[in-house]
Write a structure and sequence with these properties.
This protein is α+β, with helices and mostly antiparallel strands. Helix content is 21%, strand content 33%. It has four helices and 13 strands. The strands form three sheets. It has a six-stranded mixed β-sheet with strand order 2-12-7-4-10-11. Strands 6-5-8-9-13 form a five-stranded mixed β-sheet. Strands 1-3 form a two-stranded antiparallel ribbon. Strand 5 (63-67) and strand 6 (72-76) form a beta hairpin.
């Protein structure tokens, strides 16, 4: 599967020169705009796209997303998306910010999965939540639209991982909180925080 869009080359160059993430109100030293916006799959790995289609930031301009093993996946910023490769199997995705949110995913190689980052209480608030984009969710048919109007970012994984290692106790605390948060989701919340293998595109 290959999902592509045509970004504005001039706008991307301008954003790079300014050192900001195009089209959003936040910045991160661990993320950069990229002109490579196509999402390409490889048979042996799953591709997980973390999309934050809303351009509203508020107090949650930058929220770090890690997995359950302490791997830096990226910083989510308003109006952006980024993609990471994950080995097939079960993973926990955790947002580390003012509040903790989690998505458990079972992924298959060669498929693309989507996780939406959004503010559950509206723009201008410090909260940010993660939501699984499943076959049953209304957002499932909106992912290509998100990627058409959002800015593609590329994580600087080495620098991001060093950032986590510098705060090892905080990272472990975030993992523990994320695991606890997921375990506490009730029957009505759990479907929004669980990705199954068949939810991939």
């Amino acid at each position: 599967m290959k999902i592509s869009r045509l970004p504005s080359f001039v706008a991307v160059v301008a954003a790079l020169a300014a050192g900001t993430a195009l089209g959003c109100t936040g910045t991160s030293p661990y993320m950069a705009p990229t002109t490579h916006s196509a999402i390409e799959t490889v048979p042996e790995m799953a591709t997980v796209v973390f999309a934050r289609p809303s351009t509203f930031g508020g107090g949650a301009d930058r929220v770090t997303i890690i997995d359950g093993k302490g791997r830096f996946l990226g910083d989510t910023l308003p109006g952006t998306y980024f993609a990471v490769k994950m080995p097939p199997g079960e993973h926990m995705f955790i947002s580390w910010g003012e509040t903790t949110s989690a998505v458990k995913a079972t992924v298959t190689g060669g498929k693309v999965y989507f996780v939406e980052a959004f503010s559950p209480t509206g723009p201008g608030t410090p909260r940010l939540s993660l939501r699984a984009v499943t076959l049953r969710s209304p957002a499932y048919g909106k992912t290509e639209e998100w990627m058409t109007r959002a800015t593609p970012l590329m994580p600087a994984e080495d620098r991001g991982q060093a950032y986590l290692q510098a705060d090892a106790s905080g990272t472990q605390s975030a993992i523990a909180n994320g695991t606890k948060t997921y375990a506490g989701y009730g029957p009505t919340e759990l479907p929004d925080h669980t990705l199954a293998a068949e939810d991939g595109k």
